[in-house]
Amino acid sequence: DVKVTQSSRYLVKRTGEKVFLECVQDMDHENMFWYRQDPGLGLRLIYFSYDVKMKEKGDIPEGYSVSREKKERFSLILESASTNQTSMYLCASSLGRWTGELFFGEGSRLTVL
Amino acid sequence: GENVEQHPSTLSVQEGDSAVIKCTYSDSASNYFPWYKQELGKGPQLIIDIRSNVGEKKDQRIAVTLNKTAKHFSLHITETQPEDSAVYFCAFNTGKLIFGQGTTLQVKP
What we know:
The complex is a heterodimer. By secondary structure, chain A is mainly β. Helices cover 0% and strands 51% of the residues of chain A. Chain A has strands at 4-6, 10-13, 19-21, 23-25, 31-38, 42-49, 56-57, 65-70, 73-78, 87-94, 103-104, 108-112. The termini of chain A are far apart. By secondary structure, chain B is an all-beta fold.
């Protein structure tokens, strides 16, 4: 069964803290993505990666960075968390780049105080 | 930038009725239009998609129609059931996948 696992379902952090959101997929997919979900704004693309050690900026990369050291793992990093980064974060992977099914994790809800 | 407008933002129907969600997109070169369903506490899941060389696609109670001239596509759910209650997202590709704002569908028993 296809699976994308996000390590933390709920996190509470303080302003200025460094935050790591981990995502692992077991489907041997080349492509991995991080989206942010906010009410009324849908899903917005933060970063994506087509291969190990490569990354591309999405629509809202400011304040975020990513790491892809292994094919199955894609991490989202908030270097210095701010309250406007309080949100639901969704990781996804896919076989095809933009014309195939995205498989999403269950999400990580981050609250920054 | 590229975007997609999704309407309505909320939709409430009686069990057994039909539900329609519509999206209007900006990039006429787009060739792939998926729909995702997100149940409470879960990530979105693909339920149906359509490519630009067809005008309609059906899968049991759900169907998607595409009008490339008008640049809009719609999700149709017939004979709605309580388990259809969820948030639905449309999307289209334009070098990357752009998602709509989401529609919260409530099916009342």
